[in-house]
Amino acid sequence: MAQCKIWSMVCFLLHIFGSEKAEGAGTILIRTVNKITDGSIVQCNQSRIKDCWKVELNLNQLESLKPGDSILFSDQTDFNLKLRQNPTTFSSGSKNYQFL
């Protein structure tokens, strides 16, 4: 279920911010793997979606962030996320990260 939410968000954000590669080096949270062109992901077939990419979340990097650390959102964008506070861990084991 969480993967579906991440896919929807990533498809939406990559559509909004375009698909130009970010300049410069840095730690990247989400890396694009390949462009989806075969219709295999429902969210990629929605109207107004121009490009849709299979992505990998760098979970090790996410979990190693400390409050105040910054990370490049993806290799397709040029903005950083800054971790506001330690993640909240719920009884289910899921975590909530808050970024600026």
What kind of sheet is the major sheet?
A: 4 strands, mixed
Biggest sheet strand order reads: 2-1-3-4
Q: What is the strand content?
A: 25-35%
- Please tell me how large the radius of gyration is: 14 Å
Q: Which blocks of ≥5 consecutive residues have pLDDT under 50?
A: 1-8, 11-25
Number of strands: 6
- Whole-number mean pLDDT: 78
The number of helical elements comes to 2
What is the CA–CA distance across the termini?
25 Å
Q: What is the H/E order?
A: HEEHEEEE
Q: Share of helix among residues? A: 10-25%
Broad structural category = alpha+beta
Shape assignment: globular
Structure description:
With 100 residues, this protein is of the alpha+beta class. It is 22% helix and 25% strand. A hairpin with a 5-residue loop joins strand 5 and strand 6. The longest helix has 16 residues, at 2-17.
Describe the structure using short key phrases.
single chain, 100 residues, alpha+beta, 4-stranded mixed β-sheet, two-stranded antiparallel sheet, 2 helices, 22% helix
